[in-house]
Amino acid sequence: MSQTRSPGAGKIASGLSVGDASITRKPNCPKELLLDDHAIDAWHSNLGIMFERKSFAAEDIPHLINYCNALSKIIKIENELTDIKGFTDQTATGGFKLHPHVNAHNIFTNQSIKLANQLGLSPMARARMLSGGNGDKDDEDDDFNEF
């Protein structure tokens, strides 16, 4: 029986890059696609981080736009929810339910977390990006060394 390896198993080859090295300057801010100054500020700061880490590629642009807009929406919704009374609404039957702003806040927060992970802007995504293999070191405990 021949020995085969599972697809995707084993170490990631060293020297892999998540960014596009051929992009040497930051793209212009797409102000018509960003909601407001909060989103524009998020664009500049996060694009700067991605360029510094060399993790930016052209296909990141739509995700970065959505991420910046989600952050802007979170800021706006948090301004609406300034007191605890704003977190709930009373139903017609006298019960309480979460205010629609709270639900929207949860949706945009989850969206921003997912996009941050895709863009390498969260701590775990950054750790995965930076640990892409252990270079030329030989790991005796690696079960896949023999393959």
In short:
The chain is mainly alpha-helical and 147 residues long. The protein has 4 helices and 2 strands.
Secondary-structure map:
Layout: H1 37-52, H2 61-80, E1 88-90, E2 96-98, H3 100-119, H4 123-130
Antiparallel strand pairs: 1-2
| Relative strand content | under 5%
What global shape is seen? Answer: flat
Residue-averaged pLDDT, rounded?
A: 79
Number of helical regions:
4
Main beta sheet:
2 strands, antiparallel
Binned, the helix content reads: 40-55%
Task: Please provide the count of β strands.
Answer: 2
Distance between the termini: 14 Å
Using the CA coordinates, give the radius of gyration: 22 Å
Strand order of the largest sheet: 1-2
Q: Strand-and-helix sequence, N→C?
A: HHEEHH
State the low-pLDDT regions, or none: none
**How would you classify the helix and strand content by structural class?**
mainly alpha
Describe the structure.
With about 150 residues, this protein is mostly helical. It has helices at about 35-50, 60-80, 100-120, 125-130, and strands spanning about 90, 95-100. Strand 1 and strand 2 form a beta hairpin. Helix 1 crosses helix 2 and helix 2 (about 60-80) runs antiparallel to helix 3. The relative contact order is 0.16.
